[in-house]
């Protein structure tokens, strides 16, 4: 939903005023904490210390006793303590036994039981382990029946594990003891000081931590395999389940971790504060990773492989390690005051993670990967009807993740990268250092961070802040120039705003690159750094330069802006991709062509002609990943178009399959290129010939030289064969389930089952997904959603499309944010037809009381369905 800048500014001011004023009304009786209630509580409470005692048995429940000690400035009103769905055995307040006033979301401590000054509350309780990835999650390994637990608290789920003031600006210290089965290990923020044998259990004792926000504290326990390494500046450990330990490459983990710790110590000029560095690979994880202080968790699905890691997989691992490590300073040491500041944590970690990867690992081209992946996601997000400013109000914890998207992570990171160029690298680093020193173990706001950078630069950044952080949208820049006698006679950089509703023109620093075609290909003839602002910036320094064949006004990707190539440059890009030596520029030119497709200005079939000519010869591994990703997206558009594109798809589909398979064979001497091409082939294969070829590879009848058909690849083939109902695919699936009984095998089997083009299977799993009381773990429900309606199964999607839209409001009200983040993004139907667009438009008009996240997903689905129809209309056939 678009909002004008004035309304947004008023909303921000109102939110700030609400946050600053203590709430006078009782706290709302629901599962979430409002910003106003959090502000009221933090105005009264200070100096919080937690003493936590947990008893873990491996069974479905755990028990604990928590003592909260805190200073209270005003005892004239009740005080709430967050605790979710527990059974309370006893409670004492300041030494007096009391009957809990508890609504299953929070405990209300009566004013009569409190006192001004130091207070102590002790609560003994029991609770079910979580199975949705929040709180203290429990998983039973199907391979060996071992039980594993881990905690996950962001944004506000610590109270699903223990009684707590679950808000970021009430930092506290934590001292814990854990009684667990004797074969378990326990990891927390500090290293244990004692382990006592008690029969079949052990009692782990940990010293008190430094001050942390509740979402940064952690406790993980289970019979994990543990690797240790002391070669770096701090002790490092790596944890994984016993049944997947063989899939872990600890030397890579420790190598990147060690290099990152050295880099960040030096860059920030503030030593790492948490003494040791544990990293845990955990199952059923909701996100990619989480920056718990000194006990970081990583999703198994993103970092476990049943084959040697490719270069791309290693780079992804290095990048995520660096991202979470940056958070140890920016997020854990200095923390935002409220969830409206979450974007800065994530933006900064994305920026610093890429910088650290580029400067401390073998992946010196990390910024190229950032451009083609993260930054493009931000551009897409920023051109949607749901775009929003980087800094947005967050009324309650229910909304904490409403705007956590590519704008939060990648536009924010791009903005920081641009600011670094604008201020200078050393000035930027000094400002960050000053910020970390000044606010260590405290909470800070955006103004504090920008103020530290402004002081270092001796510049007022308030105008820059307003332009970039409080106003949405991406600007377009274009070069406008004329030539006379083979030389540039005039050159202007034009900037335009996306719409009247988002009129902001921004200041930023970019490089303009001029290129000419010659015997050596397309080469750089001149580049110039320019700071521009407003609608028009003259660049007299380029007058007299050789008239270019191509101008790129964001050379080397300093700026955050959509580039609109002039006609001559666009034609050069389309005709001469293979003549561009610079991989980053080549990536940018590919992106310009793809932008043309998505805006329905370049026919999709013209783009695919360019792919067939240029992609097989691509020699840059990172760029090849970008190009093949665009090929997959192009194929998905064709699949979504249904019967109207069937003729063209029947023609071009086999050509793309043959291109990918030929390139797979040609790359037999380079496993990285070969696996990238074979993965592409797998994702394109749909013709009978290609599916038969996959079946032969699975059986061993066809051997591709150099290709290792690992268990992961076997499941990918099984999934593809079932997706297209290849004869005998169901039997192959059953046989593979017998072969691989791991939890990842079970998940792959589930995906291959649900993806079958079978109306009965779809109906069964649609019922499971809609059953909010199901006993199935959320990880299985999410996997089913992901596999339910692939692009080419439009007819099956259509069978229940109206029903799903009709039930969307009801499910949204009954389910929580974790469920709806998956459901709304995967289960809202689109058909790439005018009728589908109209149906979604009608739903947008009717369903006005959806939660913010679900409403956004509906709007995005509608807009992307319109885009698909426009792309279909723009196609040309010769």
TrEMBL record:
<keyword id="KW-0378">Hydrolase</keyword>
<comment type="similarity">
    <text>Belongs to the peptidase M1 family.</text>
</comment>
<dbReference type="GO" id="GO:0006508">
    <property type="term" value="P:proteolysis"/>
</dbReference>
<dbReference type="Pfam" id="PF17900">
    <property type="entry name" value="Peptidase_M1_N"/>
</dbReference>
<dbReference type="InterPro" id="IPR027268">
    <property type="entry name" value="Peptidase_M4/M1_CTD_sf"/>
</dbReference>
<feature type="domain" description="ERAP1-like C-terminal">
    <location>
        <begin position="550"/>
        <end position="859"/>
    </location>
</feature>
<feature type="domain" description="Aminopeptidase N-like N-terminal">
    <location>
        <begin position="50"/>
        <end position="215"/>
    </location>
</feature>
<dbReference type="InterPro" id="IPR014782">
    <property type="entry name" value="Peptidase_M1_dom"/>
</dbReference>
<dbReference type="InterPro" id="IPR001930">
    <property type="entry name" value="Peptidase_M1"/>
</dbReference>
<dbReference type="GO" id="GO:0070006">
    <property type="term" value="F:metalloaminopeptidase activity"/>
</dbReference>
<dbReference type="InterPro" id="IPR042097">
    <property type="entry name" value="Aminopeptidase_N-like_N_sf"/>
</dbReference>
<keyword id="KW-0031">Aminopeptidase</keyword>
<keyword id="KW-0482">Metalloprotease</keyword>
<dbReference type="InterPro" id="IPR050344">
    <property type="entry name" value="Peptidase_M1_aminopeptidases"/>
</dbReference>
<dbReference type="Pfam" id="PF11838">
    <property type="entry name" value="ERAP1_C"/>
</dbReference>
<protein>
    <recommendedName>
        <fullName>Aminopeptidase N</fullName>
        <ecNumber>3.4.11.2</ecNumber>
    </recommendedName>
</protein>
<feature type="signal peptide">
    <location>
        <begin position="1"/>
        <end position="19"/>
    </location>
</feature>
<keyword id="KW-0479">Metal-binding</keyword>
<dbReference type="GO" id="GO:0005615">
    <property type="term" value="C:extracellular space"/>
</dbReference>
<dbReference type="Pfam" id="PF01433">
    <property type="entry name" value="Peptidase_M1"/>
</dbReference>
<dbReference type="InterPro" id="IPR012778">
    <property type="entry name" value="Pept_M1_aminopeptidase"/>
</dbReference>
<keyword id="KW-0862">Zinc</keyword>
<keyword id="KW-0732">Signal</keyword>
<dbReference type="GO" id="GO:0016020">
    <property type="term" value="C:membrane"/>
</dbReference>
<dbReference type="GO" id="GO:0008270">
    <property type="term" value="F:zinc ion binding"/>
</dbReference>
<dbReference type="GO" id="GO:0005737">
    <property type="term" value="C:cytoplasm"/>
</dbReference>
<dbReference type="InterPro" id="IPR024571">
    <property type="entry name" value="ERAP1-like_C_dom"/>
</dbReference>
<dbReference type="GO" id="GO:0043171">
    <property type="term" value="P:peptide catabolic process"/>
</dbReference>
<feature type="domain" description="Peptidase M1 membrane alanine aminopeptidase">
    <location>
        <begin position="257"/>
        <end position="468"/>
    </location>
</feature>
<dbReference type="GO" id="GO:0016285">
    <property type="term" value="F:alanyl aminopeptidase activity"/>
</dbReference>
<dbReference type="InterPro" id="IPR045357">
    <property type="entry name" value="Aminopeptidase_N-like_N"/>
</dbReference>
<keyword id="KW-0645">Protease</keyword>
<dbReference type="GO" id="GO:0042277">
    <property type="term" value="F:peptide binding"/>
</dbReference>
């Amino acid at each position: 939903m678009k909002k004008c800048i004035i309304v947004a500014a008023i909303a921000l001011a109102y939110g700030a005023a609400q946050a600053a004023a203590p709430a006078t009304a009782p706290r709302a009786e629901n599962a979430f904490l409002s910003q106003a209630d959090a502000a009221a509580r933090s105005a009264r409470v200070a100096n919080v210390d937690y003493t936590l005692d947990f008893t873990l048995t491996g069974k479905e429940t755990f028990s604990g006793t928590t003592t909260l000690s805190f200073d209270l400035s005003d005892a004239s009103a009740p005080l709430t303590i967050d605790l979710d769905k527990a059974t309370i055995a006893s409670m004492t307040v300041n030494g007096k036994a009391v009957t809990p006033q508890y609504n299953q979301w929070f405990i209300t401590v009566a004013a009569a039981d409190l006192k001004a000054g130091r207070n102590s509350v002790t609560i003994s309780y029991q609770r079910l382990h979580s199975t949705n990835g929040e709180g203290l999650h429990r998983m039973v390994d199907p391979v060996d029946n071992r039980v594993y637990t881990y905690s996950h608290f962001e944004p506000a789920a610590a109270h699903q594990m223990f009684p707590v003031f679950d808000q970021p600006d009430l930092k506290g210290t934590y001292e814990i003891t854990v009684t667990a089965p004797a074969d378990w290990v326990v990891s927390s923020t500090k290293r244990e000081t004692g382990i006592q044998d008690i029969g079949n259990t052990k009692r782990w004792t940990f010293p008190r931590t430094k001050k942390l926000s509740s979402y940064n504290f952690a406790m993980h326990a289970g019979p994990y395999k543990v690797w240790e390494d002391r070669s770096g500046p701090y002790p490092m450990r790596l944890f994984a389940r016993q049944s997947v330990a063989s899939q872990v490459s600890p030397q890579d983990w420790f190598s990147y971790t060690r290099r990152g710790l050295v880099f960040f110590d030096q860059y920030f000029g503030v030593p790492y504060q948490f003494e040791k560095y544990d990293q845990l690979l955990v199952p059923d994880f909701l996100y990619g990773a989480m920056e718990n202080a000194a006990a970081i968790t990583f999703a198994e699905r993103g970092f476990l492989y049943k084959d040697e890691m490719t270069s791309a997989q290693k780079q992804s691992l290095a990048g995520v390690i660096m991202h979470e490590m940056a958070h140890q300073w920016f997020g854990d040491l200095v923390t935002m005051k409220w969830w409206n500041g979450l974007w800065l944590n994530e933006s900064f970690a994305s920026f610093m993670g890429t910088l650290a990867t580029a400067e401390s690992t073998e992946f010196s081209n990390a910024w190229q990967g950032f451009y083609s992946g993260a930054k493009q996601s931000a551009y897409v997000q920023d051109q949607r009807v749901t775009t929003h400013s980087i800094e947005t109000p967050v009324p309650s914890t229910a909304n904490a993740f409403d705007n956590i998207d590519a704008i939060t992570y990648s536009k924010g990171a791009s903005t920081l990268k641009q600011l670094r160029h604008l201020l200078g690298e050393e000035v930027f680093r000094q400002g960050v250092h000053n910020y970390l020193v000044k606010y260590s173990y405290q909470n800070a706001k955006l103004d504090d961070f920008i103020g530290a950078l402004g002081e270092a630069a001796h510049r007022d950044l308030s105008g820059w802040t307003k332009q970039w952080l409080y106003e949405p949208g991406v600007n377009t820049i274009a070069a406008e120039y004329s030539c006379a006698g083979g030389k540039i006679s005039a050159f202007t950089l034009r900037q335009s705003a996306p719409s009247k509703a988002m009129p902001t023109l921004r200041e930023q620093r970019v490089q303009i690159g001029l290129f000419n075609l010659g015997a050596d290909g397309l080469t750089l003839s001149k580049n110039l750094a320019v700071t521009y602002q407003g609608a028009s910036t003259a660049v007299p320094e380029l007058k007299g330069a050789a008239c270019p064949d191509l101008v790129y006004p964001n050379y080397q990707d300093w700026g955050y802006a959509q580039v609109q190539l002039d006609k001559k440059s666009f034609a050069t890009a389309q005709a001469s991709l293979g003549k561009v030596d610079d991989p980053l520029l080549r990536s940018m030119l590919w992106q310009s062509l793809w932008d043309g497709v998505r805006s329905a200005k370049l026919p999709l079939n013209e783009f695919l002609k360019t792919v067939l000519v240029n992609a097989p010869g691509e020699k840059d591994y990172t760029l090849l990943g970008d190009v093949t990703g665009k090929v997959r997206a192009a194929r998905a558009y064709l699949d979504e178009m249904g019967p109207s594109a069937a003729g063209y798809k029947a023609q071009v589909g086999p050509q793309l399959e043959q291109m990918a398979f030929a390139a797979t064979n040609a790359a037999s001497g380079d496993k990285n290129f070969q696996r990238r091409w074979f993965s592409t082939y797998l994702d394109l294969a749909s013709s009978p010939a290609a599916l038969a070829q996959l079946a032969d590879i699975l059986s061993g009848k066809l051997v591709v030289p150099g290709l290792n058909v690992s268990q992961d690849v076997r499941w990918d083939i099984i999934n593809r064969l079932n997706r297209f109902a290849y004869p005998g695919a169901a039997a192959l699936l059953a046989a593979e389930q017998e072969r691989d009984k791991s939890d990842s095998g079970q998940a792959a089997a589930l995906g291959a089952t649900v993806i079958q083009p079978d109306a009965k299977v779809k109906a069964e799993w649609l019922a499971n997904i809609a059953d909010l009381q199901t006993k199935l773990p959320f990880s299985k429900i999410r996997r089913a959603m992901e596999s339910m309606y692939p692009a080419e199964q439009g007819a099956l999607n259509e069978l229940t499309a109206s029903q799903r839209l009709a039930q969307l409001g009801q499910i949204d009200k009954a389910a929580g944010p974790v469920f709806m983040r998956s459901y709304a993004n995967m289960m809202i139907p689109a058909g790439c037809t005018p009728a589908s667009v109209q149906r979604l438009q009608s739903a947008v008009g009717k369903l006005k009381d959806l939660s913010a996240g679900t409403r956004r997903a509906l709007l995005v689905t509608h807009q992307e369905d319109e885009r698909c129809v426009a792309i279909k209309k723009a196609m040309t056939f010769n």
